[in-house]
């Protein structure tokens, strides 16, 4: 069985491909990440998990839509959003929480709400500090509805 260092080194190559490649090579790297990350997540060190979270931040802020969507999807599979830097994680939590609220007050909410709630739950177990105090999701928002 390969050591954690072997796993980290091989996985680091995938991270580099996601950051630098385009087109089909990027698609393959993203798909590989979505397959491999759930298999090795428990064996990754916290440092390596933070690298993946920072990768998501970097590709999202650089406007690399395909890469950001793929890394986000992979992180969701392992509930790894706890390792995304707090500012981006907070914005992501706020957007998903707003989606839950919008779904709740829309047509067919009974059918659509579970998916929105599941997506929010997959972001991780720790709600980032700025998220609950957002003006968008303040308690007054719920009272006004």
Polypeptide structure, described:
The protein has 145 residues and is mostly helical. It has 2 domains: 4-83; 86-144. Helix content is 70%, strand content 0%. It is built from 7 helices and no strands. The radius of gyration is 17 Å and the shape is globular. It starts with a helix and ends with a helix. Mean pLDDT is 78; it is low at 137-145.
Low-confidence stretches: 137-145
Could you estimate the helical fraction of the residues in percent? over 70%
The ordered H/E elements are: HHHHHHH
Arithmetic mean of pLDDT: 78
Radius of gyration: 17 Å
Give the number of DSSP strands: 0
Structural class: mainly alpha
Tally of structural domains: 2
Shape: globular
- Spatial separation of the terminal alpha carbons: 55 Å
**Beta-sheet strand percentage?**
under 5%
Note the main sheet: none
Task: Briefly summarize what is shown.
This protein is mainly alpha-helical. Helices cover 70% and strands 0% of the residues.
Attribute tags:
7 helices; globular; 145 residues; disordered C terminus
